[in-house]
Design goal:
292 residues, Aminopeptidase, 35% strand, elongated
């Protein structure tokens, strides 16, 4: 166990690297307050070069903050772990200025944080105090009946994606999402290797959309991670076709629930989900932004 930190001890910060992996894993495991939006293994992997700092009290590790890989001037805070004996205000007062300086040095223009409510309210309060502003909310939907109102556009083809599709998928992603929501080649490649179903939809012009899911609770829950259709091909039943394929897959494996998240401002997507029988759960994430 990491010894408690006295408020009178000197707080310093230094960069974290792969050499600090065991220290960081121990900090996460022993944390009194923690924020984690990636798996522990993914957090350890980010130490290979993503922005990361250790907080030290008189030379002893008492906190860590890790951002995601920088993508086109944007990153997300992925890990924050603080040991006991130090106030959150003290810790973030010591961590955030050098963290932001590190991001600026990596040419980051905007840093984002997705705080779950109410679990992360402690962090939301402190980040707002530290200059972060509300960007949007991400709301959660679920579907418990596997009936569908339509099979979508029958003229397009849906197939399982391959590694050779990465470039086309990234091109769709870049046109569908603002930079903070885009996936990069690492995320898409990982999804292609590890997720149980990754669909692409195509016509004679090539790939025009995609969707992929993860499975949880022993197959009882399917989570729709991503669904996207090129802007100039929307309102043609293509998103409905992809959504039908997701529901059909969930039904085929005996899932009881499908969940998804979407930005509150994405009204067209929300109308599609609600037409398909998805209902809001009441859960949400508060998305905070810091302009660097």
């Amino acid at each position: 166990m990491l010894r408690q930190t006295s408020p009178s001890e000197l707080l310093t910060v230094r960069p974290a690297s792969l050499d600090d992996q065991q220290t960081v894993l121990r900090l996460i495991d022993d944390a009194d307050r923690w924020f984690l939006t990636v798996s522990v293994d993914e957090a350890a992997g980010l130490l290979a070069g993503a922005p990361a700092l250790l907080l030290l009290a008189s030379g002893r590790p008492c906190g860590v903050i890790i951002a995601d890989w920088v993508n086109d001037g944007v990153t997300w805070m992925r890990v924050l772990a603080l040991s006991s004996g130090l106030s959150t205000t003290q810790a973030l007062g010591a961590l955030l200025p050098p963290f932001h300086a590190t991001l600026r040095a990596r040419n980051v223009a905007k840093a984002y944080v997705a705080c779950h409510e109410p679990a992360d309210m402690w962090l939301t309060v402190e980040l707002r105090r530290g200059g972060y502003v509300h960007d949007t909310d991400v709301i959660v939907y679920e579907k418990t009946r596997m009936s569908v109102p339509t099979h979508g556009n029958p003229a397009v083809r849906v197939r399982t994606a391959t590694m050779g599709d990465i470039s086309a998928i990234l091109a769709v992603d870049a046109r569908c999402f603002t930079v903070e929501w885009r996936k990069d080649a690492v995320h898409i490649g990982t999804a292609l290797r590890e997720t149980p179903r990754f669909f692409v939809v195509e016509d004679d012009t090539g790939i025009i959309g995609y969707a992929f899911v993860t499975i949880h609770r022993g197959g009882r829950l399917v989570h729709l991670v991503r669904i996207a259709v090129l802007p100039d091909r929307q309102r043609q039943g293509i998103g409905a076709r992809l959504l039908y394929e997701v529901v059909a897959y969930a039904a085929a494996i005996g899932a009881e629930t499908i969940t998804l998240n979407t930005q509150a401002y994405n009204r067209s997507a929300r109308r599609l989900y609600e037409w398909f029988g998805f209902r809001r759960t009441g859960d949400r994430q508060i998305i905070l932004r810091h302009d660097l």
